[in-house]
Amino acid sequence: MLRPAGLICSFTPQPVNPPPYLIVIGTSAGGMPALSELVSQLPASIPAAVLVVQHLAPESSGEALINRLSRNSQMKCQLAVDQTVIEAGNLYLAPPDRHLLLRVNRLLVTKGPRENGFRPAADTLFRSAAVSFGSSVIGIVLTGMLHDGTAGLDFIKRCGGLAVVQDPHDAEYSSMPESALRNVDIDYTVPLARMGALLIELTHHPLPPQNLADIPLDLKTEAAIAERVVGTTDEVQDIGHQVPLTCPDCGGALWQLDQGNVLRFRCHTGHAFTAEALLDKEQNSLEETLWVAIRMMEERKILLTSMASRGSGLWSVQQEERIEELKSHINRLREFLLNGSSNTKGKIANTDRLEGQA
Question: Could you state a single Gene Ontology molecular function term (predicted)?
Answer without folding.
Answer: phosphorelay response regulator activity
